[in-house]
């Protein structure tokens, strides 16, 4: 944080970028965000500091503070930038198909930027995040969900996508080529303790891919119809 106080997450969306900053330096918020996403892709959240970001942009850290007050600001802007990569499908007649397309694209983007799922719990007030949340809820509303059911299924879908991406990103980042085989052998050594895991092929490399399991899980979530309104 380079000695700067950390703001509450989401605060950057509640204030405008000062016009003074645009006159004082050719640096822009857009350039900062682009560089921040690249740095996060390379080094993760722990590797992002204002000093390293300034070095990547070939400016002084002071120049950054004309545009962003804290590292939290940079993270909020970067997360929203990543959400902008999730292309919104045109709404169709099948709300489940719309949500399936959105969720697949969302997961793909999260896997492309494996640092992002860890940050989605921050206040999500950026325009790209809000537009995609609006699309998600409007599709569910077309499916008949209202009130608490709308809130529950919105959270189910969002948590499912984020959790699937986080699990996959963490696994792929931490494993070596022998890790999955070693995990399978560990389970197989104690059939009394893990009979169901062994029988189901838990951690086996087939017959289902991660993509297939993701699609089946999403279909299961969306298969439950909304309760009839009294």
Along the chain, the helix and strand elements come as HHHHHHHHHHH
Query: Total number of β-strand segments?
Result: 0
- Name of the CATH first level of the largest domain: Mainly Alpha
**Helicity range of the residues?**
55-70%
What amount of the residues lies in strands?
under 5%
Molecular shape: flat
CATH superfamily of the largest domain: Tetracycline Repressor, domain 2
Q: What structural class do the secondary elements suggest?
A: mainly alpha
Cα-atom Rg, whole angstroms? 21 Å
Q: What features would you describe in this structure?
A:
The protein has 230 residues and is an all-alpha fold. It folds into 2 domains: 72 residues, Orthogonal Bundle (Arc Repressor Mutant, subunit A); 136 residues, Orthogonal Bundle (Tetracycline Repressor, domain 2). 60% of the residues lie in helices and 0% in strands. It has 11 helices and no strands. It is flat. The chain starts with 18 loop residues before the first helix and ends in a 7-residue tail after the last helix. The N terminus is likely disordered.
What features would you highlight for this structure?
60% helix, single chain, flat, Tetracycline Repressor, domain 2, 230 residues, mainly alpha, disordered N terminus
Q: Secondary structure elements and their pairing?
A:
Blueprint: H1 19-24, H2 29-43, H3 50-57, H4 61-64, H5 71-83, H6 95-112, H7 127-142, H8 147-174, H9 179-188, H10 195-200, H11 210-223
């Amino acid at each position: 944080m380079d000695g700067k106080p950390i703001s509450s997450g989401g605060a950057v969306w509640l204030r405008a970028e000062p016009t003074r900053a645009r006159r004082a330096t050719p640096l822009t918020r857009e350039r900062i965000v682009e560089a921040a996403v690249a740095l996060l892709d390379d080094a993760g959240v722990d590797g992002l500091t204002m000093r390293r970001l300034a070095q990547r942009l070939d400016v002084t850290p002071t120049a950054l503070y004309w545009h962003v007050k804290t590292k939290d600001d940079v993270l909020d802007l970067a997360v929203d930038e990543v959400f902008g990569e999730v292309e919104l499908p045109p709404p169709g007649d099948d709300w489940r198909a719309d949500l399936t397309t959105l969720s697949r694209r969302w997961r793909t983007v999260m896997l492309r930027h494996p640092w992002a799922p860890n940050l989605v719990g921050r206040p999500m007030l950026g325009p790209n995040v809000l537009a995609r949340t609006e699309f998600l809820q409007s599709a569910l509303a077309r499916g008949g969900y209202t009130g608490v059911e709308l809130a529950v299924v919105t959270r189910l879908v969002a948590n499912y996508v984020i959790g699937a991406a986080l699990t996959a990103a963490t696994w792929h980042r931490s494993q070596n080529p022998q890790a999955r085989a070693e995990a399978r052998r560990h389970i197989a050594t104690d059939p009394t303790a893990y009979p169901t895991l062994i029988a189901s092929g838990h951690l086996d490399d087939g017959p289902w891919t991660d993509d297939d399991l993701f699609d089946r899980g999403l279909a299961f979530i969306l298969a439950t119809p909304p309760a009839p309104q009294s």
